[in-house]
Amino acid sequence: MDNNILILGAGPAGMSAASRLLSNGVNFSVVEKENIIGGLAKTIQYGPFSLDVGPHILCTKPYVYDYNEKMYRFIEDLLGDKLIHYETLNRKYLETVRVGEDAFDYPIQIKNALQNVGFLSALHMVYDYLGAKSQSPHNSNGNTSFEQVITTQLGRSLADLFILKYSEKTWGLKCSDLSSDLAWRVGEFSIMDVLIGQISNFGKNLRSQSGHPVCYPEMGIGLICEQIKANIEKANIGEVKTDSYPVRILHDNGRIHEVVVCEKGTIQSYHPNYVLSSIPIGQLIQLLDPKPPVEIIDSVLNLKHRSHLCLYLIVNKCRVLREHCIYYPDPEIPFARLMEQKNYNQNTCPDDMTALAVEFFCWYEDDLWNKDDSGLFRIAIPKLEELGIVKEGDVVDYFVHRERYAYPVYDLGYADRLRTVMAYLGGLKNLKLIGRSGTFTYMDQYRAMEAGSNAADEIVSEFTKESGGGLA
Ligand SMILES: Cc1cc2nc3c(=O)[nH]c(=O)nc-3n(C[C@H](O)[C@H](O)[C@H](O)COP(=O)(O)OP(=O)(O)OC[C@H]3O[C@@H](n4cnc5c(N)ncnc54)[C@H](O)[C@@H]3O)c2cc1C
Asked: Cis ω on the peptide bond leading into residue 246 (within 30° of 0)?
């Protein structure tokens, strides 16, 4: 048996799967539609600047909510001393939320929030919190919205302060129309643990500084996928093909038997034992031949993605921000977040210059998406000047990077639609869905990598059983 695996998409999920297959000596091909690998976690080279698609960072300690021991160790082994640990650099990873003149730590630090809002508002927050705790987050119909869960968890005034506003900016929907499945991102904490002691000691020792233990690959997050690709090329097992994408997926009797791929303009046919797909689930469904029933296509078309625009400003200054990134929940501010690439690692920019990523969330082909680079620059720059971040005269160059499938949108009906689609795709026995858009799951990089890695391990163990112990 020719153990050939076809992996669709060379983002963290697809490349982690490839890495596991490589370790087990199983042959594979990765096809990637772009000319650069890494997906949302790629690093774009722009002259001497190495630029990530918005802020990308990886946690290194179990108490941080998205930490993943297995994938962290994998990345450590993969990158060795090319992985920078902020703790050893004695530097904190700083994220803040700007509300008017105030800067709040992110993720939320109760101490810091109370310090910033003032004594009376802090008392109000406690009152709201206690009131919210006595209510159930569930509707009588059992449908729970993101807004209900967050207000029960934090109390209305703390939730309103920035979580709800920022979420509406990110997702483009009211929080009452978003599913409670999004609430994991906010993290669990108990306000009670800190409030009682702090209200009585208000003003003393309340200054806290956000920052959690993180690591970052030198020269950008894309180094993770690039290093896997370099290992593949060195070992001479498997291949990664860019500018390549599937155009037709033929299936019969519950199995995919052929995938037609356009490779740099040339049509090639694959007859894989397994297909691992990390491409957007809607694209995958539409490539199937024969086509799925109309209700499956309808369901998948109603799974929406939020798009992301990154306006990179090349600035003629050594540094602009103190923080790594700043969140702007205020709906009057046209962008959602700023991040300064150089603060992740100074070698990503020349010494005397810096790069600022101005992030916008939008819908595919809405007015914002359709703006050309200068149109987006014209929207951003007056606000950046007003906020005192950067002056137009200091910007020597700019360009926009667009990602259509950046965030799977969990609206209230998404879970039922996704179940319908998954049940159909589950009928294709040699297909495994992996990663963020591949499974329509709002997951971070560790989880995407783990999904790819686990799927590859399952295939390897199946092949091992079939061959009676050793791989062909
Ligand atoms: C702005 C932003 C900030 C983030 N910050 C963090 C962070 O700080 N920490 C963290 O852990 N995670 C972060 N993430 C999430 C992280 O980027 C993703 O979880 C991760 O990239 C998902 O990997 P993936 O391989 O599943 O999908 P993707 O990265 O989306 O990769 C999918 C790949 O498939 C390719 N593809 C798509 N369609 C086709 C096709 N038809 N044919 C062939 N190839 C195709 C794409 O080009 C892409 O290369 C962030 C995401 C965004 C958008």
From this structure: no
pLDDT in tens, the chain (472 residues): 356 999 999 999 999 999 999 999 999 999 999 999 999 999 999 999 999 999 999 999 886 668 999 999 999 999 999 999 987 777 788 888 888 878 887 766 666 777 777 777 777 877 777 777 666 655 555 568 999 988 888 888 888 888 899 999 999 999 999 999 998 666 544 555 445 444 444 444 433 445 678 999 999 999 999 999 999 999 989 999 999 999 999 999 999 999 999 999 999 999 999 999 999 999 999 999 999 999 999 999 999 999 999 999 999 999 999 999 999 999 999 999 999 999 999 999 999 999 999 999 999 999 999 999 999 999 999 999 999 999 999 999 999 999 999 999 999 999 999 999 999 999 999 999 999 999 999 999 999 999 999 999 999 999 888 877 655 4
Which residue segments constitute the domains of the chain, with CATH numbers given? 5-39+218-302+412-466 (3.50.50.60), 104-200 (no CATH), 305-408 (3.90.660.20)
> Relative to the CA of 451, which ligand 1 atom is closest?
26
Name the nearest CA neighbour of 277 among 314, 316, 298, 251.
Answer: 251
**Cβ atoms of 282 and 14 closer than 8 Å:** no
| CB burial readout 108-124, b (16+ within 10 A) else e | bbbbbbbbbbeeeebeb
Q: For ligand 1, which residues put their CB under 6 angstroms from it? A: 8-14, 31-34, 39-41, 53-58, 245-246, 278-280, 283, 308, 406, 435-438, 443-446, 448
Beta bridge partners of 145: 179
Helix H or strand E segment including 86? none
Please give the Cα distance from 214 to 455 (Å, whole number). Answer: 26
Residue owning the nearest CA to atom 42 of ligand 1: 245
Mutate to test the pocket of ligand 1, among 33, 34, 35, 40 (most ligand atoms within 8 A of CB): 40
Q: Enter the pTM of the model.
A: 0.92
Closest residue CA from atom 46 of ligand 1: 39
